[in-house]
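sorry for the late reply, my laptop died twice this morning and i had to redo everyting from scratch. anyway the thing you sent over, i finally got around to it. pasting the sequence first so we're on the same page, its 580 residues, then the predicted structure underneath. double check i copied it right bc i was rushing
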Amino acid sequence: MAKQNVAEQFVDTLVRAGVKRLYGVVGDSLNPVVDAVRRNAAIDWVHVRHEETAAFAAGAEAQITGKLAACAGSCGPGNLHLINGLYDAHRSMAPVLALASHIPSSEIGLGYFQETHPDQLFRECSHYSELISSPQQMPRLLQTAIQHAVGRSGVAVVSLPGDIADQPAPERAAQSALVTSRPTVRPGDAEIDRLADMIDRAEKVTLFCGSGTAGAHAEVMEFAGKIKSPVGHALRGKEWIQYDNPYDVGMSGLLGYGAAYEATHECDLLILLGTDFPYNAFLPDDVTIVQVDVRPEHLGRRSKLDLAVWGDVRETLRCLIPRVKEKTNRRFLDRMLKKHADALEGVVKAYTRKVDKHVPIHPEYVASVLDELADDDAVFTVDTGMCNVWAARYISPNGRRRVIGSFSHGSMANALPMAVGAQFTDRGRQVVAMSGDGGFSMLMGDFLTLVQYDLPVKVVLFNNSSLGMVELEMLVAGLPSYGTTNKNPDFAAVARACGAHGVRVEKPKDLAGALKTAFKHKGPALVDIVTDPNALSIPPKISAEMVTGFALSASKIVLDGGVGRMLQMARSNLRNVPRP
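ok and here's the structure:
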């Protein structure tokens, strides 16, 4: 049997860690690794058109599966292109292993062609970034990197010179058992008892939930029911906590709606569950606050805490629920539910009059129709900007759908490449990229990746020929919009030229039919929808101090926006409020 080289050992270790594919663009320094992938039937090379797409795709795959995903870039400019997608994956806590191949090891430090120092460059967007400078470091260094990515839920980067990758692997290299899943973390009894006492003494308790409530829906609902608490959420908590929730009071933050802001400010005790909600100006500073998080570095970095609880949300609630006394007074909960329903009734009115006849098409109408027609287990990938608003307010979670985006890093152009990674995990599952024309055109080249691999991603393009969110930021700062207009092609024609299904929609009456046809199409499809550039949105509660450049504007073209089927849910919850 031929002796393995370092590249083959590298690939075998990835396979042992459960990696199914390696996203990237080939290049000379990567050749030994790419060839090792070619000869290993357990892993595939996914050839994308830009390495940024590779990193976004790997991050999306990791978020959908909860397992390690991987990407690669060749030396210098190749792996530098990974950095934005890796920042996003790292801030989204997605376990991703990135291979940054390097120049010949004998030339490092001598200003060689394409020389960079990737082991240093990627340190800020990773938990681990190291250089393999000798075959003897394998496979231990790679195993360490994998365990950082999985164990700490983020990015790990391995820099590997091409000449080292081609050298023989060390004889009888140790192969340790790999960590491929994370344990749960239970708080100590002292913290649980103190929290239970605080809850028992408080008259009005509000829960504010983030992505850390994933897998804890049943426990959160049981807990909220026992202590009669309103339940609000951040954007990343929406998909995990809003559905089947009789205590829902909406979302807080820049994209917020409903009564979440009031519920968090009018309570006696605010419990932050699994959220690293970044906008501390939306959090109160005059109520008692407790935070529960599995990552201790998150505790207290957004607001002053009266109690910090280090633990997994589900395990914490399982310990806590038996120890708290059941509350009987629902007055605060019922008042917040009514405020929530009233708030949603108000914002819906802006888009109920002749919305299906308005030209250019209201993007809110597009999002609401998309929500109705998409599959119950669809994956939505969402571009940063106004698409975030429409997804937050119109895409209805149900426990089976997923909604992922660059919600922490806030990068443009993420929806299409994330859809690539999401679709590779399951070709039979509907994946919808909610793209803005600015974001789509930035990485439009990787629409060709959909065609090359016949990935049945459906790109729903909100085409207002502008950078809408940036225009809003300029508007509210009192500045005229400048440099925000896009001169776009007929994107549907571009899609057809690429070999995909493409259709352009300019009238509301054509929208539903175009979406249905695209969804039935077996391969990739793009629906280019011309939307109203004046359809803008602001959160329900905001002041000039809340965020720089996003102050309250009196302009009449800034609208509150609608909320789709969430109004029906709020009305249903309100019917459950006991009558006096």
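Residues 3 and 171 are 9 Å apart (CA to CA).
thats about all i looked at so far, will dig more tmrw
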